[in-house]
Write a structure and sequence with these properties.
Blueprint lengths: L3 E2 L10 H7 L1 H4 L10 H21 L6 E4 L2 H15 L5 E5 L4 H11 L4 E5 L9 H7 L4 E5 L13 H10 L3 E5 L18 E5 L10 E5 L25 H39 L3 E3 L10 E6 L4 H9 L3 E2 L1 E2 L1 E2 L6 E2 L1 H6 L3 H4 L2 E5 L6 H21 L1 H9 L5
Parallel strand pairs: 1-11, 3-4, 3-5, 5-6, 6-7
Antiparallel strand pairs: 2-8, 7-8, 9-10, 10-15, 12-15, 13-14
Helix pairs in contact: 1-8, 3-8, 4-5, 8-12, 9-12
The structure holds pyridoxal-5'-phosphate.
């Protein structure tokens, strides 16, 4: 069965041209970029080129790019480097809707000597800016706020936030893992000190990420001992993946326009098609400030996992808004932070598209999903009750 892949915020396929660029570096050109001989030297050249491509996508210089093992590592590195470089400061500001890469580290640090402010969001997933202003203090070591939310696609006003943080002389990091390649990101226009990105979200390979560190940012130089990456992160370079990340960044730059036109149109068509055909359905998140590829829709009085399983029978791959851990179907921390009612949060599905999706695929989802919801609601004891009470659209 063919897969209708609408889960691109989870991961993406490696683009054919990216894979092609990577392949020779597994078997023909397998030299170590640190070697003195020219066999390694030509690999070092290619690594350099990849670093330039990553830098170019975000308006940085190649000296400001540190290769890491993933977006999670970039996030952890940024926060740890900032607190190690500012040992006198014991306060960290982040939000309640960050990816676990930041959220879990924040929770850990809050038990290990740091005061961590998790800023709230409103019902549309927008940051409560007055709370952000109030939270800044002379003790703040770092502010880390994501650019785009992975579940809802909501964009935070990172340009505005970065400027305010800069005025206070505090280090600013943004997790741009979902933003890069989907919206324009330019560190020359925005005073960001550190920015995380990841290969597998932009049609590159898994297991490779990058951290942008603005020149002059106080940055602890010893994270993983060794001589590579300017002494910041030791270990022989993951050459093929670095080349893949470079290729993916080049592709992302070329495809940015398409992402914001064709992919956006597909997403809107999907969203409108489903909302038209399915009663008691609601989009989660600010519709005006959102990634062009993402929609999170709550179908009231049904279980997201049941929807996913039934869509799976038709080959449709998406995600639910539940944190399906230890057997409990708790709504995700993002939807809870937004105050999405329990009956709606439980039935929320995230569709995230890419340039590889087609009109036909969107039509297929719009055709298959309404009868699935209808069947599940027919089995739901809460559905009739909920309709009497008015539901979320009332
Ligand atoms: N940050 C955000 C916003 C993400 O969506 C993800 C992945 O889902 C990550 C960080 C982690 O990236 P990686 O999978 O490369 O560790």
């Amino acid at each position: 069965m063919e897969v209708i892949y609408a889960d691109n915020n989870a991961t993406t396929q490696v683009a054919p041209q990216v894979l092609e660029e990577m392949l020779p570096y597994f078997h023909e050109l397998y030299g170590n970029p640190s070697s003195m001989h020219s066999f390694g030297g030509q690999v070092a050249e290619k690594v350099k080129e990849a670093r330039e491509k990553v830098a170019h996508l975000i308006g940085a210089t190649s000296e400001e790019i540190l290769f890491t093992g993933c977006g999670t590592e970039s996030d952890n590195t940024a926060i740890r480097a900032a607190i190690e470089s500012n040992p006198g400061k014991k306060h960290i500001i982040t939000t309640r809707v960050e990816h676990p890469a930041i959220k879990n580290l924040g929770e850990y640090l809050s038990k290990h000597g740091y005061r961590v402010t998790f800023l709230p969001v409103d019902r549309k997933g927008r940051l409560k800016m007055e709370r952000f202003h109030e939270s800044l203090s002379d003790d703040t070591a770092i502010v880390s706020i994501m650019w785009a939310n992975n579940e809802t696609g909501v964009l935070f006003p990172v340009e505005e936030i970065a400027s305010i943080v800069r005025e206070r002389g505090i280090v600013f990091h943004t997790d741009a893992v979902q933003a890069v390649g989907k919206i324009p990101v330019d560190v020359r226009k925005t005073p960001i000190d550190m920015l995380s990105l990841s290969g597998h979200k932009i049609h590159g390979p898994k297991g490779i990420g990058a951290l942008y560190v603005r020149k002059g940012t106080k940055f602890s130089p010893f994270l993983i001992g060794g001589h590579q990456e300017g002494g910041w992160r030791g270990g022989t370079e993951n050459v093929a993946s670095i080349i893949g990340l470079g290729g993916a960044c080049e592709l992302a730059e070329e495809a940015l326009e398409e992402e914001n036109t064709r992919v956006r149109t597909l997403r809107d068509k999907l969203e409108n098609g489903l909302l038209e055909k399915i009663p008691n359905a609601l989009v989660n998140g600010d519709p005006k400030h959102r990634l062009p590829n993402t929609t999170s829709i709550s179908f009231e009085y049904v279980e997201g996992e049941a929807i996913l399983l039934m869509m799976n029978e038709f080959g449709i791959a998406a995600s639910s808004g539940s944190a399906c851990t230890s057997g409990s179907l708790e709504p995700s921390h993002v939807l809870r932070a937004m105050g999405v009612p329990f009956t709606a949060a439980h039935g929320s599905i995230r569709f995230s598209l890419s340039m590889f999706n087609t009109q036909e695929e969107i039509g297929f989802i719009i055709e298959k999903l309404p009868p699935i919801i209808e069947r599940l609601r027919a089995l739901s004891p809460f559905w009739k009750q909920g309709q009497k009470e008015g539901g979320i659209n009332s």
